[in-house]
Write a structure and sequence with these properties.
The chain is α+β, with helices and mostly antiparallel strands. Helix 18 packs antiparallel against helix 20 and helix 27 runs antiparallel to helix 28. It has 4 domains: 178 residues, Beta Polymerase, domain 2 (2-Layer Sandwich), CATH 3.30.460; 139 residues, Four Helix Bundle (Hemerythrin (Met), subunit A) (Up-down Bundle), CATH 1.20.120; 177 residues, Hypothetical protein af1432; 169 residues, no CATH class. Strand 13 and strand 14 form a beta hairpin. The longest helix is centred in the N-terminal third of the chain and has 28 residues. 40% of the residues are buried.
């Protein structure tokens, strides 16, 4: 930017801003090339200095223009331009906001508005994204002491250009601001960070700035260190607080995260701090890494930043929050040297670096049958502990003993934080920080494994808890090791279940589990997704499906352990993964499998219906009903209706249908999830209802012919809706049932190869499966196609995982389904002629 040329040509401020805007555009376009040779912190510093240069030139232009030939020394003009935030730290990412403090001092001889105003206007008009404050130095202390947000910004300030004299005065003010109520400031910053972590939890698409282990953790460490010790860099902290190893670990991790953040901005062409799936290929290309390695190294870097920052912050602050009255309690809770267990929490020395790892593990197991957590002080002691001085056999025996304890998830998490988990549990080494790009899991494999143990230790399904309580100690140990290591085979090309089963079987033998226990572990890991897949994708009322399932399980003991393992695995996926719907399916499958393992003959449809009819006839409520209604109920053709419902439910439905006076009636239940039940004397336009409710995730549907021409429809969804939206659902139902409107359906794509039809599924029902990409309006299209041909489905089961829909339909064989299957496929694949 040639300032003298611009002044000679008497350009307007707007024309100057256009010139600068073009320079910035060309500069940003050149950054991908610079990034190839200069990544990490160096790239950020270089970018920061270039922004300094632009801002300095604009200010020089303004003062040169305003003062003309009478320009005083820059130092004499009481204005200082100060960088703050990431700009102040020289960590400015490509498209981050540029935080500026325009500091001035009121001097009667200067009209500073004619300097500051045009300066900011040119920067705005040039397209720079400014986050700025204009502040008089006389009120700075008062404002900073009232508002900790201002104080935080000032802690990261850096001189850019302007009056050095005013900057010196500012530094004196900053010292007073820094030392004002440091404990209150630190408490507030730590509380803010805790709130931010809740807002941005760690997941498969982490926010590398705000999530746990993000750049904000390192920022918090710096703010606290600045307030306590007035350091300008973390490296200036005494070794008592951060040693060379911790510092190198923190800096390596930050360096990688800086590279990722810059690549994210360049890939997105704008401000972006979340490593979303769509940007990973471009980010990986910038970093010259594979897609998996990019995410894996990001997760690892964030974990190191989170742990090291937490440890160092604890060392800096623990004396500030120390409460002397707790000393007697802590002494009384001493387990071993520097190891205390108080209020269900393990505490350790923040400065102990000579402890033995296996001693600490043994000490921790003393309380491992009860709920317990590990303070970061104990994690620090674990992190520096030595792995020496324990024979291999004793080590194996110790690890085995862990799986015989009730509460071990927090111990494994502490070992994970301390960097020892993958050393102690060898099968997990290949899945350390391994991402899972399936649209289903929210955590990488290692954390999901720990989460599975946590779910085992906090079972929230009473029936699953009952089964767990019935297991003996050996079975529980088998369950825990299988649950913890069920995904250790992931990350390879071969089937992860089979590979993992073989790995863990050999590992369990080395730990000292018996051969029979190892065979159980092998079977459980080999089939750890079998129960979930069967319950959610197959017709669990079909004897062939049940026989195929039990042939792999073989014993009731393995079935019970697998049931609890399946519950824990699903629950660990996400807080909402285990629903009332899949809980009911798993329970039904468990009961059918138990029957099959005890007596194969009871699984036929006729036998099971007969059993249900006997229960019904023996019911006091049924005997009180009129004989005509009893006859109608027992005359219902559908076996599936009897298999799906309890005797009490059958009676309630029959009484409801018998009392039907108008054309239809319906009930809406919104607890624990939304379900709609309709009875009607003619068909229901389910396609229209589903099209109107397509924003909700459909779970299942049932359609049964009752008696007197009345049909029963039940539609269940995965989630509940806000209470005020129930009225909207009522309007949809009334609108549909009164007018039989045809839905306007979005076009969906289904290939013929994605449709499977089996007309010999059972004596009564044919089966159709559709496995295709998840699309809006998919089920509405399928149901409308059924309606157009006049096909009545008996039941539907819907599942969507990894952006793939897996839908199962049972259709009565007496209807027109099998003879029209080619026509149905043509309709669904949009290939029907004429």
């Amino acid at each position: 930017m040639d300032i003298e040329k611009l002044l000679r040509e008497e350009r307007s401020d707007f024309e100057v801003s256009k010139t600068i805007k073009e320079e910035i555009r060309n500069y940003l376009a050149s950054l991908p090339l610079f990034f190839e040779s200069d990544q990490g912190k160096h790239f950020l510093v270089r970018h920061t200095k270039n922004i300094d240069h632009i801002i300095t030139n604009v200010y020089r232009y303004i003062v040169r223009k305003q003062f003309g030939e009478y320009l005083p020394l820059i130092n004499s003009i009481p204005v200082t331009i100060i960088a703050m935030g990431s700009y102040g730290r020289e960590q400015l990412a490509v498209y981050s906001d540029i935080d500026l403090l325009i500091l001035y001092k009121e001097i009667p001889g200067y009209n500073l508005n004619e300097v500051i105003g045009p300066f900011l206007n040119i920067l705005w008009d040039s397209g720079m994204k400014l986050g700025h404050r204009v502040h008089a130095i006389d009120t700075l202390i008062e404002d900073a002491e009232k508002d900790h947000t201002i104080k935080t910004a000032l802690l990261e300030s850096r001189f850019v250009y302007g009056s050095r004299q005013l900057w010196t005065e500012y530094e004196h003010h900053l010292k007073r601001i820094r030392t004002h109520e440091p404990i209150a400031f630190i408490r507030e910053k730590m509380a803010e960070r805790e709130a931010t972590v809740k807002k941005y939890p760690f997941n498969m698409q982490p926010d590398i700035k705000n999530a746990p282990g993000g750049l904000r953790d390192a920022n918090l460490l710096f703010w606290i260190a600045k307030v306590r010790f007035n350091v300008t860099k973390i490296r200036e902290l005494p070794q008592r607080y951060i040693d060379d190893h911790e510092y190198r670990e923190l800096m390596r991790s930050l360096e990688f995260l800086f590279r990722v953040r810059s690549a994210l901005h360049l890939s997105a062409g704008g401000k972006s701090d979340q490593l979303v799936l769509e940007l990973i290929p471009s980010v990986a290309e910038y970093l010259k890494l594979s897609h998996i390695k990019t995410v894996q190294k990001t997760f690892e870097a964030m974990h190191h930043i989170q742990v090291v920052s937490a440890i160092v912050i604890k060392r800096i602050t623990h004396t500030l929050f120390f409460e002397p009255e707790h000393i007697p309690l802590l002494r009384a809770s001493r387990i071993a040297k520097n190891h205390y267990f108080c209020h269900h929490t393990h505490y350790g020395s923040l400065y102990e670096k000579e402890a033995l790892l296996y001693d600490l593990i043994e000490e921790s197991l003393i309380e491992a049958d009860n709920s317990h957590t590990f303070d970061i002080s104990f994690v620090s002691m674990l992190k520096f502990s030595s792995r020496k001085k324990m024979p291999g056999s004793r080590c194996m025996s110790l690890v085995k003993s862990i799986f015989y304890k009730e509460k071990i998830a927090t111990l494994f998490h502490a070992l994970y934080d301390a960097g020892h988990l993958f050393y102690i549990i060898e099968p997990l080494r290949k899945v350390a920080y391994l991402p899972q790009f399936d649209g289903y899991h929210v955590h990488p494999v290692d954390l999901h494994s720990i989460d599975t143990l946590k779910a085992l230790e906090d079972i929230r399904d009473p029936f699953v808890q009952q089964i767990y309580d019935g297991l003996n100690d050996s079975e529980k140990a088998v369950l825990r090791i299988s649950a913890f290591l069920h995904d250790c085979g992931k990350g390879r090309k071969s089937d992860h279940s089979r590979l993992g089963a073989n790995l863990v079987k050999r590992y369990a033998l080395r730990l000292g589990f018996t051969p029979s226990e190892c065979e159980m572990i092998y079977t459980l890991i080999l089939h750890h997704v079998l129960m979930s897949n069967t319950a959610q994708r197959e017709d669990i009322y079909n004897e062939k499906v049940i026989f195929s399932f039990t042939a792999k399980i073989r014993t009731r003991s393995i079935l019970q352990i697998l049931y609890v393992l399946t519950y824990a695995d699903i629950s660990a996926v996400s807080p909402t993964a285990y629903t009332a719907n899949n809980a009911g399916l798993l329970k039904a499958l468990y009961y059918h499998a138990c029957d099959a393992l005890e007596n194969r003959s009871v699984l036929s449809e006729a036998a099971r219906r007969n059993t249900k009819e006997v229960q019904l006839v023996n019911s006091a409520r049924f005997r009180e009903m009129p004989k005509t209604l009893q006859k109608k109920i027992l005359g219902i053709d559908s076996n599936l209706f009897f298999l799906r419902h309890t005797p009490e439910e059958i009676i309630d439905i029959a009484l409801w249908a018998e009392s039907l006076e108008s054309d239809y009636a319906y009930r809406i239940d919104n607890d624990p999830f939304l379900s709609i039940t309709i009875i009607r004397k003619k068909s229901v336009n389910l396609g229209y209802i589903l099209s109107k409710l397509s924003a909700l995730n459909l779970a299942s549907m049932d359609l049964f012919k009752l008696f007197d021409g009345i049909k029963y429809f039940h539609i269940a969804f995965e989630e509940k809706i806000p209470g005020e939206e129930v009225q909207y659902v009522r309007q949809i139902l009334d609108d549909t049932l009164l007018s039989d409107k045809k839905p306007k359906l979005p076009k969906v794509e289904i290939a013929p190869s994605e449709i499977t039809i089996d007309c010999e599924h059972s004596k009564t029902y044919a089966k159709m499966q559709v496995v295709t990409k998840d699309q809006k309006g998919l089920m509405a299209n399928i149901i409308t196609a059924f309606d157009d041909i006049g096909i009545d489905i008996a039941s539907a089961k819907i599942q969507t995982i990894k952006k793939r829909a897996r839908n199962l339909f049972l259709i009565e064989k007496e209807g027109p389904f099998c003879e029209n299957r080619e026509r149905l496929i043509a309709k669904l694949t949009n290939s029907e002629k004429g």
